[in-house]
Amino acid sequence: MLEHNLFRGKSIRLTELGQEDIATITQWYQNSEFGRLFDADPAYPRSQRHWKSWFDEEDKDKNTFVFGIRPLDNERLMGIATLDGILWPHQTAWLAIGIGDTHQRGRGYGTEALRLLIHFGFYELNLYRLQLSVFEYNTRAIAVYERLGFTREGTYRQFLAREGKRYDMYLYGLLRDEWTSSTTRP
Fold first, then answer.
1. Are strands 65-71 and 79-87 parallel, antiparallel or unpaired?
2. For residue 9, what are the contacts with CB-CB under 8 A and spacing of at least 6?
3. Which of 83, 69, 74, 82 is CA-nearest to residue 15?
4. Is 5 contained in some domain?
């Protein structure tokens, strides 16, 4: 009997994203901090039309899984988490997460969402390797990734230019065997 609920943690759940979430995500991009933590593209406000188009494309992509992060007790969207760029023959995927609601950062919701997403990737999609990239100035995210068992595998030196400074981008990876033997699983 399968007992583990793939999408439900102790305080959050992973859900579908719907058209009703477009306004919330559009609002997140009004805050340049979110864009600079989540994306290498220039931080700028994006329209609801942009996000509707993005949703439509992601729905068609068989190599992408996009989730909303919501509290257990209501429908408020707190963040998004994705597995994308999946290379099925190699069992690899890129992982990304962003907590857009600034009041919900630093409360462990992102860590919990990552645990669920990692478990989903390894045990439901049968992936073997998950990888991500993170900017050197995102020290809180780096600490979470390392605590969950990700290994820094490389550095894209001076990859990103922001406010007249250059920043490295780090590549992290996690293998299913490492996750299976760790104590950080859900």
1. antiparallel
2. 112, 113, 115, 116, 186
3. 69
4. no
* Angle in degrees, 0-180, between the axes of helices 109-119 and 139-147, rounded to the nearest 10: 50
Tally the domains of the chain. Answer: 1
Q: Which domain holds residue 151?
A: 13-180
In a domain, 66, yes or no: yes
Q: What is the pLDDT of residues 14-39, one digit of tens each?
A: 999 988 898 898 888 888 888 788 78
Q: pLDDT digit string (tens) for 139-163?
A: 999 999 999 999 999 999 999 999 9
6 occurs within a structural domain: no
Structure tokens at 157: 């030196």
Phi-psi region of 162 (alpha: psi -120 to 50; beta: other; left: phi over 0): beta
**SS3 track for the chain:** CCCCCCCECCCEEEECCCHHHHHHHHHHCCCHHHHHHHCCCCCCCCCHHHHHHHHHHHHHCCCCEEEEEEECCCCCCCEEEEEEEEEHHHCEEEEEEEECCHHHCCCCHHHHHHHHHHHHHHHHCCCCEEEEEEECCCHHHHHHHHHCCCEEEEEEEEEEEECCEEEEEEEEEEEHHHHHCCCCCC
CATH of the domain at 78: 3.40.630.30
